[in-house]
Design brief:
Radius of gyration of chain A: 21 Å
Number of helices of chain B: 12
Order of helices and strands of chain B: EEHEEHEHHHHHHHHHH
Shape of chain B: elongated
Helix content of chain B: 55-70%
Helix content of chain A: 25-40%
Distance between the termini of chain B: 85 Å
Number of helices of chain A: 9
Radius of gyration of chain B: 36 Å
Strand content of chain A: 15-25%
Largest sheet of chain B: 5 strands, mixed
Strand order of the largest sheet of chain A: 6-7-8-3-9-10
Number of strands of chain A: 10
Largest interface: A-B, 35 and 31 residues
Number of strands of chain B: 5
Oligomer: heterodimer
Strand content of chain B: 5-15%
Chain lengths: 267, 371
Amino acid sequence: MDDARCIEVRDLTMAYGGRVVMRDVSFDVRRGEIFVVMGGSGSGKSTLLKHLIGLKRPVKGTILFEREDFGAADEKTRRGILRRIGVTYQNGALWSGLTLAENVALPLEEFTALRAEAIAEVVSLKLALVGLRGFEPLYPVEISGGMRKRAALARAVALDPEVLFFDEPTSGLDPITASRLDDLILQIRSCFGTTIVVVSHDLASISKIADRALFLDIEQKTMTALGRPTDLRENPPSEEVRRFLTRSSGARDTPVFEPRPARTYPT
Amino acid sequence: MQVDLRQEEDALIASLAGIWDLEHTAPSFDRLIESFAAGSTVEAIAFDTTELGTWDSSLLIFLLRVRDYCEAHGLDFRAESLPENIGRLLDLTRAVPEQELERREAKSSFLTRLGAQGLSWFDGVLESVAFVGRVAQGFAHLPRLRGRLRWRDFWVVVQSNSSGALPIVTLISFMVGLIIAFLGAVVLRRLGAGYYVSYLVGYGMLREMAALMTGIIMAGRTGAAFAAELGSMKITEEIDALRTLGVSPIDHLVLPRVLGIFVMMPLLTIYAVFIGVLGGLLVSITMLDLSAGQFIGGLLTPLTLSDGLLGVFKGTVFGLIIGIAGCMRGMQTGSDAGAVGRAATSAVVTGITWIIVATAVIDWLAALLGV
C-alpha cells in the first residue's frame, strides 16, 4: 500500500440540513504535496475544507487523518490531530481583539509549555517568515488585507503543522500580492516539507502551486476530476472541467451584449 | 407607443411605432389581440418596425409578452423580423434556462407548520440546556483553567459593568425609588400612615426593584453587547479559528464574560438599592414633611438582613442569566449580515424573559420558605 497517504477521504457525503451538497467524494492527499480543491462558486469547496479540519461531521463516509478517523475521534484524539494541522481562513479570521503577536502566540500558549520569552521569539520568527517583521504590536484592523492573510499564515504555522489548510488564499488580493502569497506557500512547503491543502478558484494560482487538483462539479454534486492541473487541461475528463480550466462561459452562440442599447435604431 | 395589427396571409403583422419608454404605459398585447378579429389561419406573429422611434426596456417587456403568447397558443414568433439588436437581447433572456428551484416550505398545512414550529422550539430548548450545561462544565474546570483564562476579557467586562454602567443605573434606580415613594405617599397618607413610606421604598428596592431594574438595564446593555461581539467573531470565522486550535470557545470567550457580569451584578444591585432609597428620601422630605432621621428610622426598624440577601441573591442569578443568554445568542449567530442584529435582539429578549421568570420562581420559593 501507498504509505505516503496523509489524508484519506472515502465516499464522503456532505450536507447542510437535509440538502446534500456533494456526494461520493473519495481522494487521498499525499505527504508533502500541494493539493488544490477547485470548483465553481458555491460548489462546496469550503464545506469540504470544513470537513477536513473537523468543523463539520460527514453525513456519510470517513475522513482518515494519518489512519485516524477524524469524524469519530474522541476529544483527546481530536485535540492531538488539531495540534498537527494549521488553518488559514478566507478572510484571515485573526482574533480582532488581539495584536498580531498575541494572535500568533495563542496557539503556542495553548499547546506548548514554552516560557513567555521563548514564545515571543517564535512569534517574531514566524512573523518575519511571512514578511511582517516589526508588526507585532498592531491589531488586525490596522493592516491591509494581504498582510492579514500573511499574518493568518504566520498563526497557522505557529506550531509547525504537518498539514496546512488554506481557504481561498488569493481571493480579494491584487495579482502581485496574490503571486507573492503563492511564492510563500511554495517556500513553506519546500522548507518545512508541509503538506498543503488549498481551496481555490484562482486559475493562475492553481497552475502555479498545485501538484494535484480535485474538481468539484456543482451540477453533478460530486467530484469529476482528479490529477495534475496540466494533464487536466490537456485531457479534461468533462466539459465542465474544460470550461473551468480555460475560463470559458460555456454558452454557445451567446449574443454579444452591447452595454447600452443605442436609443435610436433607424430601420 | 403604438401597435397596429394587420393580417398578411397566415401571419399577423404587428407594426410598432413611435417612442417606447418606461414612463408611459405600454399597450396590452392580450387586449389588442382579443379585439383584433383575425382570420382562422394565423400561424405566426411578425413585426414591422419601420415607424419605430427610440425605445427602452418597455419594448422588450412588450415583446417578451408577445413571445409568451405565441408559445402558449402555438404560434410562430418571428424574431427575425425585428431589428438584429432587439432579437439578440430577446435571445439573451433565454441564454440560461430558467432554474427550477426547490422551495419545500412553499405550501404546507397549518398542522405541518405547527409541528415544525414545535420541533424547532424544542430544539431551541435543548440547545439552551446544552449551552448552560457546557458553561457549568466550564465553571467546574475553572480552578484548572485559572492560569489560562483570558483575564483581560474579564477585566474589560468588569470595567464596563462598573464605572461604565453607573450613570444609567444611578438614573434608573433613583427614578424607581422616586416612583415607589410617590405611590406610597398617595396611598399611605390616606391611611394616615405616611411615615411608613420609607419602609415601602426600602422593602421594595431591597427585595425586588433594585435587582430587577438593574437586571433589565444590564440585559439591554451587556447582554446585547456580548451577543454582538461573539456574533461578529462567529461571522469572521474567528470562533472556527479557535475550534481548529482545539481551544474551546466556551472556556476562552464565554467564561470570562459570564464570570465578569456574575461578579458585578450583585455589587450593582447593592448600589441600586442605596440610590433608590435616596430617591425615596427626596420625595418623603419634600412631599411628606418627614425628616431624614424619621425616614432612616422607619427604614431600618422593620427590615431584616434576609431582605437584603434575597435582593443580592436575585442580582447574582440575573448576572448569570444575562451573561449566559448574551453569549449563547452570540454563539448561535447565523452567517448573514442581519444575523448579528438578530442575535443582539434575541439576547435582550431572552435575558429579560428569563429574568422575569426567575423573579417569579425566587419570590415563590421565598414565600414558601418564609424569607
